[in-house]
Amino acid sequence: MEAILYVRWSTKDQSKGDTERRQIELGASICRQRGWTLAETLIENGKSAYHGRNRAEGGKLYEVEERAARGELAGKVLIVEAMDRLSRQEPLESVTLLNRLAKRGLTICESSTGTIYDAQRISEHWAHLLIAFARAGEAHDSSRIKAKRVSAAWRRTQTDLTTKKGADDPRLCPAWMEVIDGKFTVIEDRADIIRGIFERSANGYGLRLIAKWAQEERQRLGWPKATWHIRNVTNMLHDRRVLGEYQPMMRTENGGRSKAGEAVKRYPAIVTLELWHQVMSGLESRKGTGGPRQKCANVLSNLCRCTYRAPGSNLPCGSRMTLRRQKRGPAQITCSDFSRAGECTCNAAYRYDDILAGVLDNLLSLAMPAPSTIGQHSRVPVLRAELTTKRKRLEEMADRLMEQDDEVLEAAFRRFKAKVDVEAAELKALEAHEEKRTHATDPHAVAEQALALREQMATDADARIKVQSYLGQLIDVIFMDPSDRSATIVVMGGLRVIKLDKHGKVIGDVNTAHMLKDQSIIDKLGREVTLDANVDNWNRVLAGDNPMRLTKLDEVAQSATEAA
Ligand SMILES: [Zn+2]
């Protein structure tokens, strides 16, 4: 079928280019969907449909009416974005126009909804006429529709991040970038400060110190606007725009902001993914510790925990360890809670230098690389392909739904859409996880960095801060046992454990990392479950989420889903 695309905007339309582009794109896409040939495009520039000027002599719609009256348009389809593009006169007048054109054998397609009007359908389905009637009425009160279109234009800016002329949009420019010759360009001396923030955080500096440094640098540079403090620095360390990603946001009804669509790679990155994840894991390991102290005398303060159990209690104390320097004899660490005269009554003292030496002596053997699942076993490509297929099916369902307003179809569409949304979220989480895994710093390299600073630690507070950060990235916790004054170093969620005596000598070494290879298990329901060589999967198994130990409830749920 031959199609005529009718494009119109009024003189009052804010964004003519956008309106025209949108109407043309919509028209072209509906032609593709239905297999129509676009024979001509009529562009009615700046004519107001409200007063019917587009229908007056000289207007394109006038031409259409004339040609239809002569019978030239029979068997063709006229595409308009919305009925209000055709006419905004009195609703009855609009319907008359629609009816007249249809009676002359012209099919009319509303591209924004996919609704089709022809003479036969109008006579058969009065509902269609009623919809058109109501819509024409709505077009009369156009403010709401116009508001929707403005936000659609902004949404388009958010997806391309370009202005109407195709240049990068300065409104979406982070403070360390500018638009030069239509391209996002890094302002290097500003970016240097941002990189400095990330590098300092990766090296274990606390937010207060980083903020102080960044503020000084910023003033030196004459970078205007608000001062920098802990809050901005925290936000900056979580801002994925430094990786070149842009996350479109939209206003929610209650005035908040929520994500509108997927983040896109759009800016030049100023921080590497490796550095980003090093910072993330550093922040994670320091969470709730109050951050490193300026002098950082006690490198082990974040890691060691008192495991004393009060008589009659099953709960260990769990307190951190405080460093106590003595006039004579070696420095000691003791339970912080006890030294503050808290509830813990454990007065055991451990030799700080011996324990630290024991930790550092064994650091290379503790730093085992976690086997990666990337590449061979990644489920991401499969899930991504599945999701693409499902999204296509969803679009087909939406198309069908536009053609026939059917409750059952709509319910099925909603159910399917909810399912696709859940799967999209799962895929996203998995992608984030794999990104973290691929770009995680090699534990061996971290251990070597720490050991390289070993000599300097005695005299250099910066070296101590860095070593503390590196240990935090490698070690989960060190349990201090007052009964024999041993220290148990726990790594990789317990897959690797080394026990040191009170002199820092190894007295026990448990290594279950050999479990980290793919294994197939038959669970209680007789299904084969593959546990891939992934620390997190094994942590789940160790934590009790074991496929061999399915509960009755799981079995019921499983058989129900299999039946469905
Ligand atoms: Zn204690």
UniProtKB/TrEMBL annotation:
Pfam families: Recombinase (PF07508), Resolvase (PF00239), Zn_ribbon_recom (PF13408). Residues 3-154 form the Resolvase/invertase-type recombinase catalytic domain. GO terms for molecular function: DNA binding; DNA strand exchange activity. Gene3D superfamilies: Putative Large Serine Recombinase, Chain B, Domain 2, Resolvase, N-terminal catalytic domain. SUPFAM superfamilies: Resolvase-like. InterPro entries: DNA_bind_recomb_sf (IPR038109), DNA_bind_recombinase_dom (IPR011109), Resolv_N (IPR006119), Resolvase-like_N_sf (IPR036162), SSR_resolvase (IPR050639), Zn_ribbon_recom_dom (IPR025827). Residues 384-411 form a coiled coil. PANTHER family: DNA-INVERTASE FROM LAMBDOID PROPHAGE (PTHR30461), SERINE RECOMBINASE PINE-RELATED (PTHR30461:SF2). This is DNA invertase Pin-like site-specific DNA recombinase.
